[in-house]
Amino acid sequence: MTSAAATTDPGAPAAARIIMHVDMDAFFASVELKRRPSLRGQPVIVGGRGDPARRGVVSTATYEARVFGIHSGMALRTAARLCPDAVFLPVDFPAYHEASAQVFECLAAVSERLQPVGLDEAYMDISHRSDDPLGIGRRLKDDIHTATDLVASVGIGPNRLLAKIASDLEKPNGLTRLHPADVPERVWPLPVRTLHGVGPRTAERLAGLGVETVGDLARMGRDGLSTEFSPRHAQSLSDSAHGIDERPVQTERVRKSIGRERTFQQDCRSSGRLDHEARLMLDEVRGRLTARQLGARTVTVKLRYRDFTTHTRSQSLASATDDHEALAALVRQCLFAHRLHRAVRLLGVQLSGLTPL
Ligand SMILES: [Mg+2]
């Protein structure tokens, strides 16, 4: 009895964790190059319908295109201006899903404690493995390459924050381990945006305090930050700057959300049209919900305006449902909580809090 109590002693220090972050390099573009080898070495941009004259954003660009300043989320038209010689290809999700499934088979063989982030990225908790983490990473990269002919970057750290930073440090084809002691030398020179949780708005507020790099943030400390941020936010920023992150790897058995987004060919200024489109999107998303015999508790409606600012509104029910009218009512509440008189370029409807019914 005493030994059982000892194993759950809340005062015992938590064992050090080893977290791996795997991120495929230029994933969509690499899948495309695999079937179009003649395009290798050229700037290739995958996005929308592959036509820069039409609406759509860059999903992925090859490294040859990135040197022109092209990045994910950029309007295709802007990308065409920056790199007129780029080859534009349409997004082909079935092909990426297929490659992704092969990648995840390789990942699942390494650890069951696996948290997917989109099609081409995942965190794994490998604390339970006794072999050398860098060796695990090297073999995993080989396995992925053998199975898919695609290249992954792998980062290893004591938590998700540092594992993700590590996977990015030597991209493409990187394999990097960060220990807490490496933070001042390797992480502090990086821009604050590198840190999980520091979006454009937080970065702007930090710039107002003279904070540009992670090191600046670490030196500012919690107290210096609390002039601008809530005590909780100041604490979490300061923790991140010191490489501290307690978030667990969240193994998910059921998908967390399903949704649909649509970029309009021309900005939409009609609330009636948005209402109609949102309804059509809900119909489609709800079809996928019922096909999986799931209910949803939360509805989120996302709008992206012409200036690319993005706003989301969510509403939740007390329990999950697949009832069409109940979900449609929430969609409308969320939609009309937005400012609809502005020019809208993208509309999204998402269902989350999914539970088997
Ligand atoms: Mg990637």
Automatic annotation (TrEMBL):
The entry's keywords: Cytoplasm, DNA damage, DNA repair, DNA replication, DNA-binding, DNA-directed DNA polymerase, Magnesium, Metal-binding, Mutator protein, Nucleotidyltransferase, Transferase
Chief localization: cytoplasm
Region entry Disordered, spans: 227-246
InterPro entries, alphabetized: DNA/RNA_pol_sf, DNA_pol_Y-fam_lit_finger_sf, DNA_pol_Y-fam_little_finger, DNA_polymerase-Y, DNApol_IV, PolY_HhH_motif, Rev_trsase/Diguanyl_cyclase, UmuC
Protein name per the record: DNA polymerase IV
Protein role: Poorly processive, error-prone DNA polymerase involved in untargeted mutagenesis. Copies undamaged DNA at stalled replication forks, which arise in vivo from mismatched or misaligned primer ends. These misaligned primers can be extended by PolIV. Exhibits no 3'-5' exonuclease (proofreading) activity. May be involved in translesional synthesis, in conjunction with the beta clamp from PolIII.
Pfam families noted in UniProt: IMS (PF00817), IMS_C (PF11799), IMS_HHH (PF11798)
Catalyzed reaction equations: DNA(n) + a 2'-deoxyribonucleoside 5'-triphosphate = DNA(n+1) + diphosphate
Family per record: Belongs to the DNA polymerase type-Y family.
Textual note on the cofactor: Binds 2 magnesium ions per subunit.
Lineage, highest ranks first: Bacteria, Pseudomonadati, Pseudomonadota, Gammaproteobacteria, Chromatiales
GO MF terms, alphabetically ordered: DNA-directed DNA polymerase activity
PROSITE patterns listed in its UniProt record: UMUC
PANTHER family: DNA POLYMERASE KAPPA (PTHR11076:SF33), DNA REPAIR POLYMERASE UMUC / TRANSFERASE FAMILY MEMBER (PTHR11076)
SUBUNIT field: Monomer.
Polar residues: bias regions: 227-239
Native organism: Spiribacter roseus
Keyword Chaperone belongs to the record: no
Cited Gene3D superfamilies: 3.30.70.270, 3.40.1170.60, 5' to 3' exonuclease, C-terminal subdomain (1.10.150.20), DNA polymerase, Y-family, little finger domain (3.30.1490.100)
EC number: 2.7.7.7
Site (Substrate discrimination): F28
Active site residues per record: E121
